[in-house]
Amino acid sequence: xILSISWQSLLFSQNQGPRVEVxxxxxxxxxxxxxxxxxxxxxxxxxxxxxxxxxxxLKISDSPQVFRSYSNINGVNSARLELSFQVRATRQxxxxxxxxxxxxxxxxxxxxxxxxxxxxxSQQDLxxxxxxxxxxxxxxxxxxxxxSTTRPFLFEGETVPATVQLFLWDRLPVTRIEQxxxxxxxxxxxxxxxQPNEKRNVLRNGKRYAVxxxxxxxxxxxxxQPKLSxxxxxxVRVSNRRNGPFGSPFRNDxxxxxxxxxxxxxxGEEREIEVRPLPMKGRPAGFQGAIGNFTSQSRxxxxxxxxxxxxxxVFEISGTGNLAAIPAPDISSGKNFKIGPPAFSFDGNxxxxxEGKQSFEYIxxxxxxxxxxxxPIEFAYFDPLRESFVSAPTRPHPLQxxxxxxxxxxxxxxxxxxxxxxxxRPSTSDLFQTEVEPGEWRSLLEASPLIEKxxxxxxxxxxxxxxxxxxxxGIRRKMKGKEKFRRKENSLxxxxxxxxxxxxPSSLLLAFRDLLRLKIAKNRKHPNPxxxxxxxxxxxxxxxxxSEEVINSVKELLRNCDDQEFAGNELSKQPVEDxxxxxxxxxxxxx
Amino acid sequence: MSxxxxxxxxxxxxxxxxxxxAESENKLFYDAVRAxxxxxxxxxxxxxxxxxxxxxxANLYGNLANLYFKKETYGRSILNYRKALLLDxxxxxxxxxxxxxxxxxxxxxxxxxxxNSYFSxxxxxxxxxxxxxxxxxxxxxxxxxxxxxxxxxxxxxFFLFWICLNSLGVWAVTQxxxxxxxxxxxxxxxxxxTGEDSNxxxxxxxxxxxxxxxxxxxxxxxxxxxxxxxxxxxxxxKHTNSIGETWYFxxxxxxxxxxxxxxxxxxxxxxxxxx
Lengths: 591, 275
Prior knowledge:
The complex is a heterodimer. In chain A, helix 5 (505-524) crosses helix 6, helix 5 crosses helix 7 (548-566) and helix 5 (505-524) packs parallel to helix 8. The radius of gyration of chain A is 39 Å and the shape is extended. Chain A is 25% helix and 36% strand. By secondary structure, chain A is of the alpha+beta class. In chain A, the strands form eight sheets. In chain A, strands 24, 26, 27, 28, 29, 31 and 32 form a seven-stranded mixed sheet that branches. In chain A, strands 1, 3, 5, 6 and 7 form a five-stranded antiparallel sheet that branches. The model of chain A is unreliable at 1-15, 243-247 and 406-426 (pLDDT under 50). Chain B is α+β, with helices and mostly antiparallel strands. In chain B, strands 1, 4, 5, 6, 7 and 8 form a six-stranded antiparallel sheet that branches. Chain B is built from seven helices and eight strands; from the N terminus they run αααααααββββββββ. In chain B, helix 1 (2-37) packs antiparallel against helix 2 and helix 3 (58-70) packs antiparallel against helix 4. Mean pLDDT of chain B is 82; it is low at 14-22 and 194-200. The interface between A and B is large, with 40 and 57 residues.
């Protein structure tokens, strides 16, 4: 009878359809405070599909806290789904969130309008705001990027050495720099950032910093007043106690608490750099974009060759400037030479490519015999310090080209070599000179190849032994790792069980989170389970094709785990045993 | 004391033959140089040939080749330049002399002469070391990456790169080995005696059968390269006829010209005793 009544009441409540309530809690706030935009949907626990509404002057969080509940009061069953959005106002006034729609299990429900009153900030709010600004300023001072160049302005296409410096406050618990600083702005190009130089105990703003410096070559691409800044990502270990005595998460010592890692974006100050266009006046014909201070020279490897023999012409530019951007100068081949495409080589500062020697090697093949002249190379550059063009052509090189050996056609030399005319045969006096010393004596004309020597094959046993040792070491290491992992897993499972006995939800949730990290790291082959933050865990769960339900449940438990540590929430009212079952069930389900 | 004396005497007895050995080849070489200076080319050739029976040196074969050229015996001149180049492959002077003699004798240099490529016989050891190095380093690296659980994609890329480098190495070793075998089978056609080896019309005939009266398939000039045919059991294909003459079956590099050639008309670059 009772069952039939409760079933009918449930049916009745379902027949009524889901009902939506909405409210701000509290409904009026001062400008410096937050409020909760709470949506309660009665009569369903299905998953929601929605897009967060946007209202000018309000900042509504994208990740609401979701809470599902089910109750039976006086035989009436009721299911409830709560969504709580954090809302922050950016200005004073009355704000109304217009009615909007959510989709629940295929049904479209309308969320009614709700109004929030935002009042002027109180004295207390202003004080808090000031403190927050101080904290933000402190956070900005905790990690920042600076860059410096050697010149106050640049010319278009000019390359100068620059230094990018990342300052990290020594009290900031940085675990790693995730990437080298990245340039923001397309008006400049920089050379590759390699390994930084590290300097510790640098004093700035009354704090001690570790400074990481990268030397780069900075090239201005577009004339004007372009802006340039750098940013990077670092990973810091922060405390879970958000409401700690100091407010700032970096102030707490993370090594005595359950710290978690978070990514932090470090920005540098945006700077305007003047980039001037190159003057058109007085631009020489041989100018091809070289900017800096250079000397040029050329040389040939031989000044006497036979017709058709190649000659190497090397043109070198030394000095400071945009060496990497200088194209090979054109050399007019004329009718005397055939000139091949040049080969480039750079010798100097490989990091900035700003200082050194750029060489262009041409292969010239003389086409006519006689005393020829390798033409001078027209080279001109723009000196940014003197702000004028400079011509630096090379000198011509004389080259004696003789005719070389002549081919005797068969019909002319029909006789055998024995009775051929002596005058047609080249002189052998230069060719066949007698060596008066025997040189090195050898017992064999040709040494037997290495592959046929038994010693070579015996020696292979050395690397083979090395490989076997390596494999043995690897297998042992792997087995040890597995054993350690298994022990840790067992210990955490035991901790979960014990916390049920001690009625300690906080310990249960912490053990659950660590066990979850281990399991996910094992499944997804992550090398460092303890470094996994909640977002990363969720991301790995998604990658493992877990169901949305499992992911949402894990998300909820992780959030509760973070909150439970220092604040306690409604979860503490739930029986620990239920939490244990839920957590244990989830651990079994995840992939 | 007597024991010390015994050791000293034994050492001297053992050392003497080696000393006289080294001295004799030098002595013959210097005798040859003196004879050449006196323009007694026949004696100089004889001394050099005697010295070459004891030991080898690039200068010895170079001088010998020069003398044969001066006596217009181009086949033996080319043969000795080839021997000299085996000992000193980078000697530009020897290379220039060889190509000049070939030009005079109107002989196209064989493909093996032109081997400056990366897969010549002389680079076989280098390729062997390279392949061995790549094989073990790659194998060790892969084991290390596997045990350290390095990124799987990186492991696959490394493995493919390793396979490619190994394949290149094995292929190169095979190529150089083939070239090495070919070089060991190479012979230079020469006229039977030095006096008759002038290039006037002394062609060497590649005959259909292994006897003097047999018709010939074709002929080659003294100095041309031929390659000895091998039997299935890896021995040289040869025939000794009823009058005691030994004949070898030889062919050109492309295999177009082939036939039986009398033993004294062919001289090996690498003597059979050294293989």
